[in-house]
Amino acid sequence: MASTQPRYSKEEFARRGDTIYEKQILPKLSAKDVGKFLAIDIETGDHEMAADEMKAGNKLLRRCPDAQIWIVRIGHAAARSFGGREAQQTKP
């Protein structure tokens, strides 16, 4: 499968992807979707959900071979995290 080249800046990808996610998709999600990955075509709004980002992206590419894909992890601020941080302790 040929690689699709980005047609937008990183900032435009993020803006479009976040807007579609927040306005069109997020209101339809449920608690069982938290932790899953969502691949969104930022041009059409088409999307696919899966347990990992590669599966979500590949499912979307099978339907939309020229998709400009933005990946979101449902219920998380970022799809991936790097490094670690100490958990905050709360008082009992």
In short:
The protein has 92 residues and is of the alpha+beta class. It is built from 2 helices and 3 strands.
Sheet with the most strands, sense and barrel status: 3 strands, antiparallel
Secondary structure: number of strands: 3
Question: Average pLDDT across residues?
Answer: 86
Q: Give the H and E element order.
A: HEEHE
- State the low-pLDDT regions, or none: 86-92
Amino- and carboxy-terminal Cα gap: 54 Å
Cα-atom radius of gyration:
15 Å
Morphology: globular
Helix percentage range: 25-40%
Share of β-strand residues: 15-25%
Total helical segments: 2
- Structural class of the secondary structure composition? alpha+beta
Oligomer category: single chain
Order of strands, main sheet, comes to 2-1-3
What does this structure look like?
The protein is α+β, with helices and mostly antiparallel strands and 92 residues long. It has a domain of 47 residues. It is 29% helix and 15% strand. The protein has 2 helices and 3 strands. Strands 2-1-3 form a 3-stranded antiparallel beta sheet, sandwiched between helices. It is globular and about 35 Å long. The C terminus is likely disordered.
